[in-house]
Design a protein that fits this description.
Layout lengths: L2 E4 L7 E4 H8 L6 E3 L5 H6 L18 E3 H22 L23 E6 L2 E5 L2 H8 L3 H26 L3 H19 L5 H5 L14 H10 L2 H5 L5 H18 L8 H11 L10 H14 L6 H13 L3 H10 L10 H15 L2 H12 L11 H8 L5 H15 L5 H13 L3 H13 L18 H13 L3 H13 L6 H14 L2 H29 L31 H13 L3 H13 L6 H13 L3 H13 L7 H9 L2 H4 L5 H20 L7 H17 L3 H14 L6 H9 L9 H24 L13 H20 L6 H4 L1 H10 L3 H5 L3 H7 L4 H6 L1
Antiparallel strand pairs: 1-2, 3-4, 5-6
Helix pairs in contact: 1-5, 3-5, 5-6, 8-10, 11-12, 12-13, 13-14, 14-15, 15-16, 15-17, 17-18, 17-19, 19-20, 21-22, 21-23, 22-23, 23-24, 23-25, 25-26, 25-27, 27-28, 27-29, 29-31, 29-32, 31-32, 32-33, 33-36, 33-38, 34-35, 34-36, 35-36
C-alpha cells in the first residue's frame, strides 16, 4: 500500500498508509466513505419491482456511508442470496452465523516508510520498527490497529460476497470503494501523493452547506493540489469560495483541518509575482476565524495578522497585540520582523518614543540590521514642529551609519519626507548634502552661498521633483528659494505648469492657471515700469486683465517674480482651447497683447480652433488674416490644418449647397496661402494628416478639379505619395471605417474592389513590353502607380472616368491652378518655383 506522510501537529513527518491517514484525519468523527449517488446500501434498501415495471430514477445524493452500514448491507444481501439458494437446493452447511467482524481477519500487506529528509524515504522492516521510528503514542497506535482490522474485515466481506454468488454486487462495492480513493487522492500514488496532500473539510452536507462543498471542490483542483505560484484568478476564487463558506464553517470550526487553514493562509497572503490588492483585508478576516476556531497561529502568521489588523484600522488594538507578542522579538527567526513592524506601526500611530526604542533594539543587536529603519522615525518626527530638529539629528545619524552605502534613492526619500511636512529648509540641506557630500551648510542663512543660490542649482532640484511627480513639493521649493533671493526661471516654472495641466485633476489645473496668470501679471508690471521709464513726463497707464488670487496655498500671499513668456501663454491657450473656454482664451489674447509677448503660430492656431469650435468660422478666418498680415505671424503646417477644419463640409453633419460653394473658394485660397508660406513639416503625424485633410475637404465640397490639382501639386512640393488605405477611404467617401460595423465592412469591401479594379485597369493600359510585376516594383514605380490610381479615382468620383484630363479638362485645371497658386508647379512646371515652395524633399521624408 502506498506510503502517506503522517503528522498529528504538522511538526513531525513520517509515513503511514493512505487508509490509516484517512481514518486518523477524522478520528473525532465517524469513519465515513464518500458516496456519489448510488451505492450497495441504496440498492439493498430499494424495493424489488416486477419484471418489466419501470423503476423510478434515483436522485443524486451526497450522503456518506459508514463501515457499519456496509456490513448491514452485506448481511442483508447475503441473507437474500441464502434464501434464494435454499428455495432451489438443499441447504449447505456454512459458518455464516459467524459475524464478519468476529471472523479472524486476513493479514494485510502493509508497507511502512519513514521520511529521512524531504523527498527521501526509508522503508521500515515491520510495524514495530515503524512505531519506534515514528514515536507514535498509544492512542494513535491503537487507531492504526483498529483501522487495519476494519480494512481486513472489508476485504473478507467482499470475498464472501463473491463466494456467495453476489459477484456483481461485490464488484459494484469494490468499484465504489476504489472511486472514493481515486477522488480523494486524485489518482496519485507514492511520494508524489504524499507531497501534494489532499485537503477536504468533512462534516458538512446538504443544501445548507453547499458553499462548503464548493470550497472542497476548489481545494481538490489539480492546480491547487500541485501548488506553485497562484494566479490572480486563483486568489479571487479562493477568497470567493472561503468567504461564502464562512457562515457554515462557523457552526463547527473544529471540523476544519489545520492543513486547510495553512493552505488558505498561504494562498490569501501570497504577494510574490502576483497582484493581490486585498491581501491584508483577507488576512485580517482569516486570522479572526482561526482565532475563533482555536487554531494557534505560527510566529510568522502572528506578525502578519497584527500588521493586517493595523492596516484595517484597528491601530490601538494592533499595537497592544504587538506588545503582548514580545516573545517573538526574542526569537532569532522573527527578531528582525517583529521589531521592524513595531517601528513602522508606532511611527504611524504617533508613538515616536516607543518606535525609537524598537529601532535601538534592532541597531544595538548582534544581528546585521539596516539603518534605513530610521527613515519612518524621521518622517514621524518631522511632522511635528517641536521634534523637527530631532528628526534632522536622526537623519544625520543614519547617514553616518550607512556611510558610502547611502544611495540617491535614500536621499530622495528623506527629502520627500521633509517636503511632505513643509520643512523645505531641512529638505534643502539634505539636497545640498547629496550634491556636495555635506560640505556646505545652508540652514538658518538669509542669503545662500553662490554654489547653491542660483537658478541653475534650483533648476536641477525642480527638474528632479517634477520628474518624480512631486509637483506641490516643487512649488514649495520655488517659493522658499525666492524668499532666499533665488528666483526660478520662467522655463522651470513653465515645466511645472505643464506638469500640473497634464495631471488632469481640477485642483492641479487651478494651480497651473493661477501660477501662469501670476507670471503674466508680473510681466504686465514689468512692461508698465519699462514704459514709465521711457516717458517720465506722463506715465502710460496699463490695465491688467483679471488676475485670479495668488497660488500660495499656505495663505502666505506669495507673488511670483518670474515673468511670463510665449511658452506660458501657449500652455494656457492649449488648456483653454481643449476645455472649450473661449472667453478665457480671448482674455488671454488681450493680456498677451498688453504684456507685449510675441504671439506665436501655436497660440494663433489655438485661437482659430477655438473660434471654429464655437461656430464662428468667419471670425476664425478673419483672425488668421489679421494676425498674419498685420502682426506678421508666420503660419505653419498646423495653421493650415486648422483652417481646412473650419470649412463647413468638415464642421456640419448635413451638407449645405451654399456653404459648400463658399468652401470651394476658401479651400483654394487656403491651399494658395499654404504654398506661399515659408514652413516645413515638423512631424510625421502632420505629414500624414494634412494631405489627407486637403483631399477629403475638396472631395466633400465636390471640387474635383481642385482636388486633381492639389494631388499633382502635393506630389511636387510635399513629395507625397497617397497610401493605398487612403485610396480606399476616398473610394468609399468616408473617414470612419475603423468602427467594426456591418455597414463599414460593406464599404471597405466595395472600396477595396474599386481600387483594385483601377489598378488592374492602369496596368492593362501600359504597353505590353513595359508592364511590371506588382510584386517586384521599385519605390518610384509603385508611387507612380498610386498617383495614377488617385487621378483615376478623382475622375471616377466626378463621373469623368472616360475623359482625358490633360486634353479635355485643361481649361478647368488651369483656372483651378491659378486660384490655388500652383500654376508654375502643375501647369507650367518651373524647377525654381518648385524648389522654392517645396515643404519636404525626399531625403527629409526618408529621415522622417
Amino acid at each position: 500500500m502506498p506510503p502517506r506522510t503522517f503528522s498529528l501537529d504538522l511538526s513531525r513527518s513520517s509515513y503511514v498508509c493512505k487508509s490509516c491517514l484517512t481514518n486518523l484525519r477524522i478520528s473525532n468523527q465517524p469513519k465515513w466513505l464518500a458516496r456519489h449517488g448510488s451505492s450497495v446500501a441504496q440498492k439493498a434498501q430499494q424495493p424489488q419491482y416486477p419484471t418489466g415495471q419501470k423503476r423510478p430514477k434515483p436522485k443524486a445524493t451526497t450522503e456518506t456511508i459508514s463501515l457499519e452500514d456496509l456490513q448491514k448491507a452485506f448481511t442483508q444481501l447475503k441473507t437474500e442470496a441464502r434464501e434464494q439458494e435454499q428455495a432451489q437446493a438443499p441447504p449447505i452447511k456454512t459458518d455464516d452465523d459467524i459475524s464478519p467482524i468476529a471472523r479472524p481477519t486476513q493479514p494485510l500487506s502493509v508497507r511502512y516508510y519513514n521520511e529521512i529528509q524531504p523527498g527521501t524515504y526509508k522503508r521500515m522492516p515491520d510495524k514495530d520498527g515503524f512505531t519506534t521510528s515514528a514515536k507514535l503514542d498509544t492512542k494513535i497506535e491503537a487507531a492504526i490497529n483498529e483501522l487495519e482490522q476494519q480494512m481486513a474485515s472489508t476485504v473478507e466481506m467482499l470475498q464472501q460476497m463473491e463466494e456467495g454468488g453476489m459477484q456483481d454486487k461485490a464488484d459494484d462495492l469494490r468499484k465504489q470503494f476504489k472511486k472514493t480513493l481515486r477522488d480523494q487522492y486524485k489518482g496519485k500514488t507514492g511520494p508524489e501523493a504524499e507531497e501534494h496532500r489532499w485537503l477536504r473539510i468533512l462534516g458538512f452536507s446538504g443544501a445548507r452547506h453547499r458553499a462548503v462543498a464548493n470550497l472542497n471542490r476548489f481545494l481538490a483542483r489539480e492546480n491547487v493540489v500541485k501548488g506553485g505560484v497562484p494566479k490572480p484568478k486563483d486568489l479571487l476564487e479562493c477568497w470567493k469560495s472561503y468567504s461564502a463558506a464562512r457562515k457554515s464553517l462557523s457552526t463547527a470550526w473544529e471540523n476544519v483541518p489545520r492543513g486547510v487553514w495553512d493552505f488558505l493562509w498561504t494562498t490569501l497572503s501570497w504577494e510574490e509575482g502576483v497582484d493581490n490588492p486585498n491581501r491584508m483585508s483577507h488576512i485580517y478576516v482569516l486570522a479572526k476565524d482561526m482565532s475563533a476556531a482555536g487554531v494557534v497561529l505560527r510566529d510568522s502568521q502572528q506578525l502578519l495578522a497584527i500588521e493586517a489588523m493595523f492596516i484595517e484600522g484597528w491601530q490601538a488594538e494592533a499595537i497592544e497585540a504587538w506588545k503582548k507578542a514580545v516573545t517573538l522579538g526574542s526569537k532569532p527567526e522573527t527578531f528582525k520582523e517583529y521589531w521592524e513592524l513595531g517601528v513602522r506601526m508606532c511611527c504611524i500611530y504617533g508613538d515616536t518614543e516607543r518606535a525609537q526604542r524598537a529601532a535601538d533594539m534592532l541597531l544595538n543587536s548582534a544581528h546585521d540590521m539596516d539603518p534605513r529603519i530610521i527613515i519612518p522615525i524621521v518622517r514621524a518626527l518631522a511632522a511635528k514642529e517641536p521634534t523637527r530638529e530631532q528628526a534632522w539629528t536622526l537623519f544625520r545619524d543614519m547617514r553616518d551609519l550607512l556611510g558610502t552605502s547611502m544611495t540617491v534613492e535614500d536621499y530622495d526619500i528623506v527629502i520627500g519626507s521633509f517636503l511632505a511636512c513643509n520643512c523645505v529648509e531641512f529638505a534643502l540641506q539634505a539636497f545640498v548634502d547629496m550634491m556636495f557630500a555635506g560640505a556646505i551648510d545652508v540652514r538658518g542663512k538669509t542669503r545662500l552661498p553662490t554654489a547653491v543660490g542660483n537658478h541653475f542649482f534650483l533648476g536641477k532640484w525642480l527638474k528632479r521633483l517634477i520628474g518624480a511627480g512631486q509637483l506641490d513639493e516643487a512649488y514649495q521649493v520655488a517659493v522658499f528659494l525666492q524668499t532666499k533671493g533665488v528666483v526660478a526661471s520662467p522655463i522651470q516654472l513653465n515645466g511645472l505648469i505643464g506638469a500640473w495641466i497634464r495631471s488632469g485633476s481640477a485642483e492641479d489645473l487651478d494651480k497651473a492657471e493661477r501660477l501662469a496668470w501670476d507670471m503674466i501679471h508680473t510681466r504686465l508690471e514689468y512692461v508698465y515700469l519699462r514704459h514709465r521709464a521711457a516717458s517720465m513726463d506722463q506715465p502710460t497707464r496699463f490695465y491688467a486683465p483679471y488676475v485670479p488670487p495668488t497660488i500660495g496655498g499656505d495663505g502666505s500671499g506669495f507673488k511670483c517674480k518670474a515673468r511670463a513668456t510665449a511658452e506660458t501663454i501657449s500652455l494656457l491657450a492649449e488648456n483653454y482651447c481643449s476645455r472649450g473656454l473661449h472667453d478665457r482664451l480671448k482674455e488671454l489674447w488681450e493680456g498677451s497683447q498688453r504684456a507685449e509677448i510675441t504671439t506665436t503660430a501655436f497660440f494663433m492656431n489655438q485661437l482659430i480652433r477655438s473660434h471654429s469650435h464655437n461656430m464662428k468660422a468667419d471670425d476664425a478666418v478673419a483672425l488668421y488674416r489679421s494676425m498674419t498680415k498685420e502682426q506678421n505671424i508666420r503660419p505653419d503646417g498646423h495653421t493650415f490644418l486648422t483652417l481646412f477644419s473650419t470649412l463647413s463640409v468638415n464642421r456640419l453633419i448635413q451638407r449645405d449647397e451654399v456653404l459648400s460653394a463658399r468652401d470651394v473658394v476658401s479651400g483654394r485660397q487656403f491651399f494658395s496661402d499654404m504654398v506661399e508660406a515659408d514652413w516645413v513639416f515638423d512631424s510625421p503625424e502632420l505629414f500624414g494628416i494634412l494631405p489627407r485633410t486637403i483631399l477629403f475637404s475638396m472631395l466633400k465640397a465636390h471640387d474635383y478639379t481642385g482636388m486633381l490639382v492639389a494631388a499633382r501639386a502635393m506630389k511636387e512640393i510635399f513629395a507625397y505619395t497617397p497610401p493605398e488605405p487612403l485610396l480606399i477611404e476616398l473610394a468609399t467617401g468616408s473617414t470612419m471605417l475603423k468602427a467594426p460595423t456591418k455597414r463599414n465592412l460593406e464599404r471597405l469591401m466595395s472600396g477595396t474592389m474599386t481600387v483594385e479594379g483601377l489598378m488592374k485597369h492602369h496596368r492593362a493600359a501600359v504597353a505590353p513590353g513595359q508592364r511590371l510585376d506588382p510584386d517586384n516594383m521599385t519605390v518610384d514605380q509603385r508611387a507612380a502607380e498610386l498617383h495614377a490610381v488617385l487621378e483615376q479615382l478623382i475622375l471616377l468620383k466626378a463621373g469623368l472616368q472616360d475623359v482625358d484630363p490633360n486634353a479635355n479638362l485643361r481649361p478647368a485645371l488651369e483656372a483651378a491652378a491659378r486660384d490655388m497658386g500652383v500654376y508654375d508647379i502643375v501647369i507650367a512646371p518651373d524647377p525654381k518655383k518648385i524648389s522654392k515652395h517645396r515643404k519636404l524633399d525626399k531625403k527629409a521624408l526618408q529621415e522622417m
